[in-house]
Amino acid sequence: MHSMRSRRKGAATAVDGRDSGEKSEQLLLSSAICNGEDLGPFVRKAFASGRPETLLQLLRFFGRSKESEIEEVCKAHYQDFILAVDDLRSLLSDVDSLKSSLSDFNSRLQSVAGPLLSSLDSFVEAQNVSNNVDTALQSVTTCIKVIELCSRANHHLSNGSFYMALKCLDSIENEFFDKTPSSTLKRMLGRKIPEIRSHIERKIIKEFSNWLVEIRAVSRNLGQLAIGEASAARQREEDLRIKQRQSEEQSRFSSRDFVYALQEDDDENDGFKGNIRLLDFDLAPLFRAYHIHQTLALEDQFKQYYFENRKLQLASDFQVSSMTPFLESHQAFFAQIAGFFIVENRVLRTGGGLISKMEVENLWETAVTKMCSVLEDQFSRMQTANHLLLIKDYVSLFGVALRRFGYPVDSLLYVLSKHRDKYHELLLSDCRKKIAEALAADKFEQMLMRKEYEYSMNVLAFHIQTSDIVPAFPYVAPFSSTVPDCCRIVRSFIEDSVSFMSYCGQLDFYDVVKKYLDQLLSEVLDGALLKLINSSVHGVSQAMQVAANIAVLERACDFFFRHAALLSGIPLRTAERSRRQFPLNKARDAAGDILSGMLKIKVDGLMTLIENVNWITDEPSQAGNEYVNEIIIYLETLVSTAQQILPTQVLKRVLQDVLSHISMKIVEALLSDSVKRINANSIMGIDVDIQLLESFADNLASVFSEEGDKIQLKNALAESRQLINLLLSNHPENFMNPVIRERSYNALDYKKVVKISEKLRDPSDSLFGSFGNRGAKPKNPKKKSLDALIKRLKDVS
After folding, report:
1. Which portions of the sequence form the region Disordered (predicted)?
2. For residue 160, with 0-12 CB atoms within 10 Å meaning exposed, 13-18 middle and 19 or more buried, which class applies?
3. 520 near 490, Cβ under 8 Å?
4. pTM for this prediction
5. Contact, 495 vs 567, CB < 8 A?
6. Which of 461, 224, 235 is CA-nearest to residue 339?
7. DSSP string of 381-421?
8. Distance of alpha carbon 524 from alpha carbon 173, whole angstroms
9. 595 Cβ neighbours under 8 A, 6+ residues apart
10. Cα 287 → chain centroid
11. Range from 151-165, 546-560, 602-616, 663-677 carrying the lowest mean pLDDT
């Protein structure tokens, strides 16, 4: 202990002699050791400075500095250490006894466990074999299932059950591909599954392509069937409308009739729905292809492929052959398009999103635009009204058929209505030719009808009968064959016009039909009749027949406008209110004028006999002069013939013109320069002539039922009658009384009165005769009044 202290003191003395740098290093080293820090930096520094001995010295110094502390600790725990050593010694004896016990137990355990270990090794080996067998069985089972699925997929492929084959492939991929123990089998599956899918896609695309070809052929039949059904439905509507018109004409409406009509309409709707079910077609290949592509995760690709192919098909359907007239190909053209959109409607409703509503609407807009363009082009080339009507009817049926599937067709109907003016111009042109041909073929002979069906076809059909009683046959009509021919032409025009205007989107089109009907009657028919009258009428009988025809056509015009109203679906009272004057006025006036003119020429020929009248006769004629007898005989013959064909008003007008002309000719005869002098006896003879003519007018009571008609005929002789009355009057000067003149002599011209009155004066009353008669008895008051009249009229003039 003393030696250790002496060393510590010597070391301390040595350390004290070191420099302050070593002290600082010592302190740092001591602090690091006490704190349990890493001494590596100190070691590296010592070797780096080349003074490892210094570090060793410092460490030794630090160790010596801690020896005293160790000593103190040992002193403090010395007793405990001795006790622990004693415990260890006793423990060693126990351990030896335990070791011997364990050795004995181990030997016994070895002797017992030996057979068990050998059995355990056999069990473990058997268990490993069993596990290997189970794994092999599982692998074989998996391979068998894979092979079974492959076999099933092959079977489905050979049968064309592509969806089931794809489901087998999906099952192999999702459930067995990763579990397949055979790498060879896995490689084979990895190579074949994509190939099989590509094969299925090619096969299904081929089937879809075949379906596209087939559906195009089916579409035309579908379109024709749908348009035919629309036509049948329209015909049923027309039949019902005809029944309603018949009921309106008979004015026998009843509640039962209305119920019947409504029930019939319901039956028609049911029939249409039933026939719509016949519009069936096979979409299975399409939906199968769509389903397969959905299974292949190619749904969007197939949608685009389908849309593009159908779009190309529609563009192909729009092609109009320039080699075939559109009139022959228009039905196939529109039927193909109709079938196309019927198919698309079904695909839209049942395709499960294969095509969208917007895509169908875009296709329809494209189709409507193209169809409108084709119609505009074709209509602009057509020069036959019937061709245009045929196409219009089919297009309107096309519109009806497609509207029932929800497609708007207003643009097509607008194109049709836009060409109504051209259609009616062509129709008027056709009617102009037909009417000209009918009039040119007229023989101006009354039409003979031998059978009742002829009467019904030529008379009752146009409501031109004068009586509801069916005449006895054979029946001679008052008109010639031209009348029913022209009526048929006009009726056909009305029906064609209404047919064109119907189903063009305009409900109230009667005004349009009436406008063109007025044009046909007032321009075409009236003009043709006027031309016939001016160029082809060469006799009284022909003129009379033409006048009779026009009178019958006047009755037919009422039928034409009623027929147009009925076909247009408006009440007859509305049509009656909108009627205007008779549209054949020019022809009627011309026929009356030419007939009157011819009769006047004939009368003029007979009036030449008035030159044989003795104007200074000593005795008045009691039986009338020769000329008037001849005229009356001729007029009686004329009336007996004319009343069989001419209507009363036409005959009255003609007779008025003739009698007025006769009256004028009598006055002209009295005014003639060839008549130098007349006496009272000749005036009395003329009075008898006029009385005979008036008697002739009175005798027409059987012809003219109204009293006013006979008065009008007598008034036609007003000028000659008033003149004779004035000349035979006892007070001729009353002519100058305005009241009397207006009442009794309003048809007379005072200049003519003066001239004729001067011829009636006795020559002895002249200026030179008065000197020889001085002192004679006074003048006759009548002569005096006549002289006064002449003088006053001359003063007025």
Report:
1. 762-784
2. middle
3. yes
4. 0.66
5. yes
6. 224
7. H---HHHHHHHHHHHHHHHHHHHTTT---HHHHHHHHHTHH
8. 86
9. 540, 543, 544, 546, 547, 654
10. 32
11. 151-165
- Spell out where 715-797 has E strands: none
User: Is the confidence at residue 620, as pLDDT, over 80?
Assistant: no
Structure tokens at 751: 């200049």
pLDDT (tens digit, 9 = 90+) per residue, 63-81? 777 777 777 777 777 777 7
Least confident piece of the model among 183-192, 390-399, 436-445, 617-626:
183-192
DSSP string, 688-703: HHHHHHHHHHHGGGGT
For residues 407 and 364, the answer to whether their CB atoms sit within 8 Å is yes
Query: 545 vs 371, 594, 656, 703, CA distance in Å?
Result: 52, 12, 19, 18
Residue 444: name the closest of 551, 541, 555 by CA: 541
The answer to whether residues 395 and 417 touch, using CB atoms and an 8 Å cutoff, is: no
Count CB-CB contacts under 10 A for residue 479: 24
What's the distance, CA 783 to chain centroid? 89
Q: Measure the CA–CA gap between 613 and 611, rounded to whole angstroms.
A: 5
Rounded Cα distance, 790 and 461, in Å: 65
Residue 109 Cα distances to 103, 106, 112, angstroms: 10, 5, 5
β-strand pairing of 475-476 with 448-449: antiparallel
Burial class (CB within 10 angstroms; exposed 0-12, middle 13-18, buried 19+) of 19 = exposed
Enter the tokens of residue 422: 């051209």
> What pLDDT, in 10s, does the model give residues 141-155?
777 777 777 777 777
Which helix H or strand E contains 687, and what residues bound it? helix 680-698
Other CB atoms closer than 10 Å to residue 631's CB: what's the count? 27
CB 789 within 8 A of CB 757: yes
Asked if 334 contacts 220 with a C-beta cutoff of 8 angstroms, the reply is: no
